[in-house]
């Protein structure tokens, strides 16, 4: 026998699937124009060093949709990834970042670096390394100022492609960071197989830091391990003064999180940090 509540539950489910499909279609329909019209914007979130100064920034994209307003990466990046459009968006953001580095260099801020995110789908295009090399040449920037952020799952999904790209770019002087380190299951394995320059401690580590002594010990160990391997450590998702104090005690090289700033537009970033 079919119960009314089950029928309703099923309808609700189908309704939400339909909504999802419609939204997904809209995102894809609007994407080309959005890219052309500058609706996709580079936002920057500062990374603060042990000296309390801003040294680096992460590039995070924001979509200012002409009708729908601000759309966050979580609501469009997976759709672009599923439809093989992410590469076009990432290429655009990488180019914005390179351009920004060139502008800063001329303005006397050539010591600041920007890290950009690389999606696993980007790696299906064999020329990711060449794209970065060409961008550095086109904008005449020091490759060491442009960092790539790659997650463990990206590396695991495409180990060979990833490893090739990482080796090629590191040889050219670009820096590579392991994003969301510790959020997956084979982080240590990855450290053994991939040489990188930066370890980004996943924000999951910080969540229980205030109540949990074991969490503190694990963070300490990971930071020490990274340093032993000559990697700089960036802690992500830093929100409280207690976290700042503890991470600084452990000599965590850079701190990134809402405690210091949310990701902000480039002009706002310049006003805040270059004034
Ligand atoms: P991610 O690369 O790990 O970036 C860090 C995310 O954590 C960002 O979310 C950032 O706004 C957020 N965050 C930073 N500090 C804090 C904090 O103190 N507390 C909390 N709760 N969150 C904090 P966002 O900008 O929404 O981006 C989410 C994810 O989307 C990114 O994770 C990255 O994987 C992806 N993403 C963003 N922009 C791009 C892009 O241009 N290309 C690609 N391929 N992926 C991107
Ligand atoms: Mg990242
Ligand atoms: Mg991250
Ligand atoms: Mg992430």
From TrEMBL:
Residues 24-275 form the EAL domain. It comes from the Bacteria. This is EAL domain, c-di-GMP-specific phosphodiesterase class I (Or its enzymatically inactive variant). It comes from Succiniclasticum ruminis. The lineage of its organism: Bacteria, Bacillati, Bacillota, Negativicutes, Acidaminococcales.
């Amino acid at each position: 026998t079919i119960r009314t509540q089950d029928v309703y539950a099923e309808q609700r489910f189908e309704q939400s699937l339909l909504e999802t499909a419609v939204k997904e279609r809209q995102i894809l329909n609007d994407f080309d124009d959005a890219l052309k019209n500058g609706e996709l914007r580079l936002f920057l979130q500062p990374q603060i060093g042990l000296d309390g100064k801003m040294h680096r920034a992460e590039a995070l994209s924001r979509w200012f949709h002409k009708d729908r307003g601000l759309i966050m990466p979580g609501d469009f990046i997976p759709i672009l990834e599923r439809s093989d459009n992410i590469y076009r968006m990432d290429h655009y953001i990488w180019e914005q970042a390179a351009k920004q580095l060139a502008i800063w260099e001329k303005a006397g801020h050539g010591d600041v670096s920007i890290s950009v995110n690389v999606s696993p789908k980007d790696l299906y295009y064999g020329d990711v390394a060449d794209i970065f090399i060409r961008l550095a040449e086109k904008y005449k920037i020091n490759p060491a100022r442009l960092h790539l952020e790659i997650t463990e799952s990206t590396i695991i999904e495409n180990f060979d492609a990833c490893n090739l790209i990482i080796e090629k770019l590191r040889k050219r002087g670009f820096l590579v960071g392991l994003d969301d380190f510790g959020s997956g299951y084979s982080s240590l394995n990855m450290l053994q197989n991939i040489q990188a320059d930066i370890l980004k401690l996943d924000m999951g580590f910080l969540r229980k830091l205030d109540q949990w002594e074991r969490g503190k010990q694990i963070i300490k160990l990971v930071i020490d391990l990274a340093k032993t391997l000559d990697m700089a450590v960036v802690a992500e998702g830093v929100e409280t003064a207690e976290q700042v104090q503890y991470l600084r005690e452990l000599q965590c090289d850079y701190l990134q999180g809402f405690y210091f700033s949310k990701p902000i537009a480039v002009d706002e970033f310049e006003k805040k940090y270059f004034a």
